[in-house]
């Protein structure tokens, strides 16, 4: 309970101080918002399993402490499944506070053990699967979401090995996540092209007019990809040494991205050749990534890197959801296990030093009120972060 209160309080303090928080302690899961529809069945199944084992813990502890179990069942609250156990109130009130604590804490204990076991299995998976798979070379596509940005005849295929995302090498799942996170943090990366090559490949209408005036016919049709969408060309922006004005060019995406990578104009220094670092003319959230898979040409992905991040598995859900149930249920908050745990704890610890039951009740009510406000504040901040 103290650890849970400390974690939630730390998150609130860091949020108001605008200090960086590496990972949210509480993150609301919303289907269609931050939960892909393809993972909904995993999420529902894991939530149901965690809820059932949580309530089974209460029931087993109640039977051990000779408290009658009236019933057990399942429920569905909107989209979220759950379970419940009905214990005899008279029997609960008749047993000692220590025995009550064993019953009330049994559900949280079951979730804690399940999260630890699932975490150990997750860490041991590379060793357990070593006879059947090679490790440390790449990640393998296990599923492609239909009608997504990476599906289709030229997209990713199940079983293909991904070795690189642009200049970031991928050897395992951790590298895959790190490379996508890096692509979101970094500014745009460009490609070095000589100015003569830019003018030659540019198929925008303005360059076509200039080509006619210079009596150099264009080898392909005019494409205005800076104002419309094209399946082969992409709008790039660049600067030259002679002018600080931003120039735009409609270039074939694959030949342009095959050129050397640059981040600054100075990266494109070539003796006796004037070159420019051309960047994709996209919004702040969109990235142009080159995904190297197998022996084929790299897949050009244009979009938000999170659209690629579907590496979620059932065992990972067990660790996160079961751990979240531990943190939430142990908080001294109304309608949660922490409410009853706190009451039994106050009775057990303060009965001898605070004999007045009204004073103990006042202390208990104050703790529950503060715990409820702390949890509501965390949920509010988490929802604000999710929809910001």
Explain what you see:
This protein is an alpha+beta fold. The chain folds into 3 domains: about 1-125 and about 315-385, no CATH class; about 145-190 and about 285-310, no CATH class; about 190-280, no CATH class. The protein has helices spanning about 1-15, 40-65, 90-95, 95-130, 175-185, 195-200, 205-215, 255, 315-330, 335-350, 355-385, and strands at about 70-75, 80-85, 140, 160-165, 170, 190-195, 235-240, 245-250, 260, 275-280, 285-295, 300-305. Strands 3, 4, 5, 11 and 12 form a 5-stranded antiparallel sheet that branches. It has a 5-stranded antiparallel sheet with strand order 8-7-10-6-9. A hairpin with an 8-residue loop joins strand 7 (about 235-240) and strand 8 (about 245-250). The two termini are about 30 Å apart. About 25% of the residues are buried. Mean pLDDT is about 85; it is low at about 210-220.
Q: What is the terminal separation in angstroms?
A: 30 Å
Describe the global form. Answer: elongated
How many β-strands, per DSSP?
12
Fraction of residues in β-strands: 15-25%
- Give the helix/strand class: alpha+beta
In round numbers, the mean pLDDT is 83
Helix fraction, binned, reads 40-55%
Uncertain spans: 210-220
For the record, the count of structural domains works out to 3
The ordered string of helix (H) and strand (E) elements is HHEEHHEEEHEHHEEHEEEEHHH
Q: Supply the number of helical segments.
A: 11
For the largest beta-sheet, the strand count, sense and barrel status come to:
5 strands, antiparallel
Return Rg in Å. 29 Å
